[in-house]
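Re: flavin-adenine dinucleotide structure - here you go.
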Amino acid sequence: MKKKIVIVGGGSCALFLACQLDTKKYEVSIYEKNKTLGRKFLVAGGGGLNLTHSESSYNFIKKYSPHSFFKNSFSKFSNKNFINWLHKIGIETYVGSSGRVFPNKEKKPIDILNILINIIQQKKINIFKKHEWIGFDLTQSLLFKNHKNTFTVKSDYFIYCMGGATWRVTGSDGSWLKKFENIGIPTFPFEASNCAFKINWPTELINRIEGKALKNCSFKVGKISQLGEVVLTRFGIEGGGIYPLSGSIRKQIKAYKKAELIIDFKPNLSEDVLFKKLTTIKKTKNYSQQVLTLLNLNPTQLSLLKYYTSKEVFIMPNLLVKAIKNFKLELKETGPIDEAISSVGGIDLKILTPHFELKSFSNHFVIGEMLNYDAPTGGYLLQSCYTMSSYLSNYLNSQ
Ligand SMILES: Cc1cc2nc3c(=O)[nH]c(=O)nc-3n(C[C@H](O)[C@H](O)[C@H](O)COP(=O)(O)OP(=O)(O)OC[C@H]3O[C@@H](n4cnc5c(N)ncnc54)[C@H](O)[C@@H]3O)c2cc1C
């Protein structure tokens, strides 16, 4: 008789895992509380589905925090393996100018989700929708409820893929955390990552710059810096330029109740070059306009510089250069977790074996955003789902 595998949650990890499990060997069932699978996967596709990144393994692995826990599985199931696997199942990809990997334009996120679901259906995997996991049973089985009943499910292996705590509307509400804590599994509270950060903008300034973007800037918090783009909002600031700094920002906010964001408005020009350019300006009435044109700044950058630097600084080339290269903003708190792209927190990595099994509960495995690790946007999140699910399916298939 085939051994049973129960997958709890039907999001990105569950889909990648189910596609790769050996159904000649196992009877596999997915229990998902929503009426459809992969809702967050579809949300992820909303802004352009960034499946992974094309950079070298050496740099790739450094994007995860902590990266040590991921090193082993990534060495076997890397971004190259993910891309090859996607091609094998009919999802062609291309590398964008940023190095990010996307599905070919004719394939929409829903098409990709359907390809994954078709594979699962062909493998005769049982899919129980509208089935919510509600806890552990004393007899080493799990408790579920559907619209009619509460019932227990027995299995040889349980794999938890219930996601983190962002975008509750997709089903990933993190409510499983307490139940794991209650049976003695160490967890960390959820926090927002890849999210907006609050800035106490002066009203007159934000009225002018709300919704405006800062492009091609370098953003730095602590020792971590990132080139990219952000959008200035009434709440504060958000966007790819600061998402990778989320961990450093959270750390500073915890320690000092604020974080210092340093922006270089002209990362491609050295202080010397900027200085030389500025010294050619004649201090006439249209000085600001000349600075704008000569340095190719945009009006939003100019508004920020003028608001936060005194007139004396603004007209002194050596001081203005410093302000342009080291423009400082104070970040006060993270934005609402429900609007974040990902969360950190969840299950402590220390209590897992290298193949993601709970050390104190054999045959119970946890993968994906339920685990306490951080990664930036740019494909690193879905890549981690692929890597963990491939590593785990490889392990189970070889049992
Ligand atoms: C706006 C947005 C954009 C994103 N863009 C990208 C991107 O471009 N590239 C990228 O790499 N990543 C992106 N991500 C992140 C990516 O979607 C997630 O990292 C990934 O989906 C996590 O997979 P998971 O399987 O761990 O959890 P999820 O995909 O969240 O799946 C968890 C599943 O478990 C189910 N569940 C929860 N509790 C229960 C329960 N009690 N019983 C039964 N089922 C339950 C949920 O309903 C859900 O279906 C984005 C995320 C967001 C929010």
